[in-house]
Amino acid sequence: MHRKTIPQTDVLILRFSALGDIAMTAPVVRSYAQAYPNLSFVMTSVPMLEPLFAGIPNLKFEGIDTKEYNGILGIFRLYRRLHRFRPKQLLDLHQVLRTYLLCALFFLSGTTSIFGVKKGRRQRFQLTKAKGKRLQPIPSMISKYIDVFVRSGFLPFPIHHIPLNKRGASTLLKLYSSAKGEQDIKKLEHEKWLGIAPFAKHPTKEWPVERMERVVDQIGTSGKYRTFLFGGGTLERAMLKNWELRYPNTVCVAGTLDFAQELTLMGKMDLFISMDSANMHFASFMGVPVLSIWGGTHPYAGFYGWRQDPNLAIQSQIKCRPCSVFGSKPCRLGTLACLQEISVEEVLHRIEQFFADELH
To answer: 318: which DSSP letter?
Structure first.
């Protein structure tokens, strides 16, 4: 039995984590694949995120669960899996030990056109150090991903929004509405829709959930908006389901949809409220305005939502922040003061201000 031969791939792209960072690669990868229809592209990343790269004929997605490829032997097995694409060019949008080793193996096997992202570690250090920090914006990761393509020989051009298919969101809403006994579907479709994702991976990035619950309570009882709650973990889902039961005009999406459906519904939001988290980047990818709440991290570090208005970032001016690029370092004060300084009233005011500005 002969193994099926895969045509040689023009460009193989590596990015295995984290979810928000992968979402930031999507508009770049999609735009370049669409701009060069005669070339073949393969994107390797987390299997769940395949919908971010769907719909472009010359862009193939290869889902990789890196937990299956641990250790040196795992790297060799992953290399053998990817080598079957026989790439002419390799773009490393990750630049971690795993991808360094993969690039080395591809180089030894004859793929010499290899380019990696320049992360700007020195600039990040200057931005986050405890004393004498330079509070200046550094290039966004989007621009750094574009730079990889340009250095590899592609032409520079503005990355544009290529929306995914948003059809089906009304059907999803009807299912929710039916379950809650609501009949006036046309009325629901003309409401303002708010998406809320109250959680983040690290404590230094997560606004106190009891404050977000108060926001959900007040905007729900106001009757002005239909609120959709997004989240991932088991405990998070249970909490959000409880909010759905307690507060009017509130729908818990967490745990009820697959990722493609979540993106579809997210794309119909009039405004999305989140932490500096993956959901901020998913909503940004779908072209939705995001009112983002920041703690120990900072938009200046290059991870602000793609095409988002800087004025939609809610953040404390406390001098110790940012203390971390990714939020993984503990609070230097031990108090999370940067998050504690952001009040419920401020968030509610910013929501009202957003919709007021829309009318003018």
So the answer is: -
**How far is it, in rounded angstroms, from Cα 103 to Cα 101?**
5
Structure tokens at 135: 């509070």
CA distance 106 to 80: 10
CB-based contact 146:156 (threshold 8 Å)? yes
215 to 180, 242, 254, 346, 348: CA distances (angstroms): 21, 15, 18, 10, 7
With cut-offs at 50, 70 and 90, classify the pLDDT of residue 66: very high
Find out whether 41 and 31 touch, Cβ atoms under 8 Å.
Answer: no
> Does any domain span residue 160?
no
Can the peptide bond before residue 203 be classed as cis, meaning omega within 30 degrees of 0? Answer: no
Range with the poorest average pLDDT among 152-156, 263-267, 299-303: 263-267
Q: What is the CATH classification number for the domain harbouring 267?
A: 3.40.50.2000
Helix, strand, or coil (residue 9): coil
Angstrom distance (rounded) from CA 121 to CA 130: 16
Split into its structural domains, the chain has a count of: 2
What's the distance, Cα to Cα, between the start and end of the chain in Å?
67
121, 151, 181: which is the final residue of a domain?
151
User: SS3 of 285, please?
Assistant: helix
